[in-house]
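During the no-cost extension, the postdoctoral fellow (Dr. R.K.) reprocessed legacy sequence entries with the updated structure-token encoder. One reprocessed record is reproduced below for audit purposes.
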Amino acid sequence: MLHYAIVFFVIALIAALFGFGGIAAGAAEIAKVLFFIFLVLFVVSLVVGLFRRGGG
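Re-encoded structure tokens follow.
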């Protein structure tokens, strides 16, 4: 999922470079949403992993 966030971020940068403001804004929003979803899933998996190892 982080891979897709990076891909959309690069698309946003390229679109902004060529002056496509709407496409750049859309791609940046998608990248931001995917990044936050990745971050939440990462934290949840970390917490679950700690409880599994610690709780036994």
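Residues 2-55 form one domain. The helical segments are 2-18, 21-55. The remaining legacy entries will be reprocessed before the final report is submitted.
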